[in-house]
Design brief:
Distance between the termini: 94 Å
Shape: extended
Helix content: 40-55%
Largest sheet: 3 strands, mixed
Number of strands: 5
Number of helices: 8
Radius of gyration: 25 Å
Strand content: 5-15%
Length: 308
């Protein structure tokens, strides 16, 4: 209903603030980007324009995240597929702990393509950024049109088997990465979503010594236990609505709580399995240190008695 008004202006315009570090090049660390000293104003934008899920800071070197739990209440949660966008970021930054293939399954969602979009979006000046954003937006639009055509084909009777193989995400979804050195430049196979219908198998995969980060994903989906609330179709849950009455707030909170209850046991099992994996690795390392200590002690005592 708001399209006619919103197409006239950009709905989220970057904020412009005075540059508080203008002219301070010699007074700040060398790690500061060169471009920050060259303009008297800074343009800032909602980070959600890049990704609605604030996952990127958790993938920085040194964070060593073991379990990442993401609650996604984005509009059109399946179509936007923000969790899948992290694949491109992880590939661009060389993050090897991230489970490749997370997010809603799409035929054209490839980490390499997402990484290329990130590279094209890099800029050093506001003017350059505006030009690159326009180019990337055009490419995204074309890619969305292709994906829409593929989606229509996927709904045909001939493709029902293939659609069943891709599967739909549930209230709680778990993926786990694997430490695996690859010499090939080909894309790695996507990580399989863990199935808690066979908890022993899923627990085993989480506890494998070469397992890395576990990602637990809760998309805000409609639930029959909370009738009347559909994030994609309920009017007051529109992105452009900023006013909620107490009853509407209670309904949304009730939906989120109900969805979490659906995946509460899977979340507990995931955290427990990762804890046991790290505990086993720690005990093994301690045992190896004990053996080294005893060998060193015996060697020193042998040298002492041999010398005397």
């Amino acid at each position: 209903d708001k399209n006619d008004d919103l197409i006239k202006i950009h709905p989220i315009e970057p904020a412009t603030i005075p540059n508080f570090v203008y002219g301070m090049k010699d007074k700040l660390p060398d790690t500061c980007p060169e471009s920050v000293f060259k303009t008297d104003h800074l343009q800032v934008m909602d980070a959600g324009m890049s990704n609605n899920l604030p996952i990127y800071p958790l993938l920085r070197p040194g964070r060593d995240v073991d379990v990442l739990i993401a609650f996604d209440a984005s509009a059109e949660v399946k179509k936007e597929n923000w969790l899948s966008v992290v694949d491109g970021y992880a590939k661009q930054r060389g993050v090897k702990s991230w489970p490749v293939g997370t997010g809603w399954p799409k035929p054209s969602a490839k980490p390499q393509e997402n990484a290329e979009l990130y590279e094209k979006a890099q800029a050093s000046t506001p003017q350059e950024a505006s030009q690159k954003i326009a180019q990337v937006q055009e490419e995204v639009k074309e890619r969305q049109e292709v994906m829409q055509r593929e989606s229509i084909k996927a709904d045909s009777p001939d493709s029902q088997a293939r659609k069943g193989e891709q599967g739909e995400l549930e209230y709680c979804n778990v993926w786990v990465g694997i430490k695996e050195e690859r010499n090939s430049t080909e894309e790695p196979p996507p990580s399989k979503r863990l199935s808690w219908e066979s908890p022993n198998d899923s627990t085993f995969r989480l506890m494998e010594p070469n397992a890395t980060m576990a990602v637990v994903y809760f998309p805000l989906l409609p639930n029959d236990k909370v009738p009347g609330v559909d994030p994609d179709h309920t009017d007051y849950l529109s992105t452009w609505n900023f006013i909620y009455n107490p009853e509407q707030i209670d309904q949304v909170v009730r939906l989120a709580r109900t969805n979490f209850k659906e995946g509460e046991e899977a979340t507990k099992r995931t955290i427990r399995a990762v804890y046991e994996r790290k505990k086993a690795a720690r005990l093994q390392q301690e045992e190896q240190w004990k053996i080294k200590w005893w060998r060193k002690k015996l060697r020193n005592e042998g040298d002492f008695f041999g010398g005397s």
